[in-house]
Design goal:
Layout lengths: L1 E2 L2 E4 L5 E4 L17 E3 L2 E2 L33 H31 L8 H20 L4 H10 L2 H5 L1 H9 L4 H12 L6 H15 L25 H7 L3 H10 L10
Antiparallel strand pairs: 1-5, 2-3, 2-4
Length: about 260
């Protein structure tokens, strides 16, 4: 086989080839954080890639796992069950470590309590559970999107969204679309998230916002307004974004840009 190498995008936007490892060696790529693409392979019918997911086995270390990359083609009940069990096991593990820390704190100093640490712990776990739930998109919505779009169209919706939000008619259509969106039940939780993110941007704390698209960055003085579609992309909700664009006829703007 020739070809099939993996290319990664560097910080300056250029691409670099990751050379295949020699016998007895390996290359580890954190695919969720690095934009990458496999080159076409020649001399073989298919290129098979195996992926193993890792996370830090250290209490309190941020777990940025997500399922948006496999959601478009997976059996959703099975995927959601595995995802939920994994996340709850991680949460249980974190709780057990917190319990141990409280007991350990009480031994030398029974007159005090680490209230600030508990508050911080609770905030982290609330955020963790919220991200867990947000990754499980409504099954009926996913089925509808799969009926209208191919997997490659779902995965490339970010490019389509950038064309749509730059279209000359987008700002004129948006107010009416958002009125209708506010009455569409499947997206109501995401509208609430959108308002929270905009509040963080206005307060200058955008860097504290979680993003599946690597580090979240949105200058509050930026001329472009942070739109609902940007929020859906931030969370990796590609099916929801595509369904929203399709439902309210914004998707046609991409063809006219």
């Amino acid at each position: 086989m020739t070809g099939g190498e993996t290319y990664i995008r560097k910080g300056d936007g250029s691409a670099v080839k990751v050379e295949g490892p020699s016998l007895g060696h390996c290359v580890i790529l954190q695919g969720g954080q690095v934009e990458h693409l496999a080159a076409r392979a020649f001399g073989t019918a298919e290129r098979i890639t195996t992926i193993t997911s890792y996370r830090a086995a250290i209490p309190g270390v941020y777990d940025d796992s997500y399922i948006s990359n496999v959601r478009p083609y997976s059996d959703l009940p099975e995927l959601y069950a595995e995802w939920t069990n994994y996340r709850l096991e991680k949460l249980k593990w974190e709780i057990e470590h917190m319990q141990a820390a409280i007991i350990q704190h009480a031994d030398p100093d029974p007159e005090s309590f680490p209230l600030d640490a508990v508050y911080h712990f609770a905030d982290r776990q609330i955020s963790y559970l919220k991200r867990t739930v947000r990754q499980m998109v409504d099954q009926a919505l996913c089925v509808d999107v799969r009926q209208h779009f191919e997997v490659r169209e779902i995965n490339s919706v970010g490019d389509r969204w950038r064309h749509i939000r730059a279209h000359r008619r987008f700002k004129d259509l948006l107010p009416g679309v958002m009125v209708q969106t506010s009455m569409w039940r499947p997206v109501l939780p995401y509208l609430s998230d959108w308002e929270e993110t905009k509040c963080m941007i206005r307060s200058g704390h955008a860097s504290l916002v979680y993003s599946q698209q690597r580090t979240f960055s949105w200058d509050r003085n930026r001329s472009e307004e942070y739109q609902f579609g940007d929020e859906l992309l931030r969370q990796g909700l590609k099916e929801v974004l595509l369904a929203w664009l399709h439902r309210f006829d914004l998707i046609n703007l991409a063809l006219d840009s």
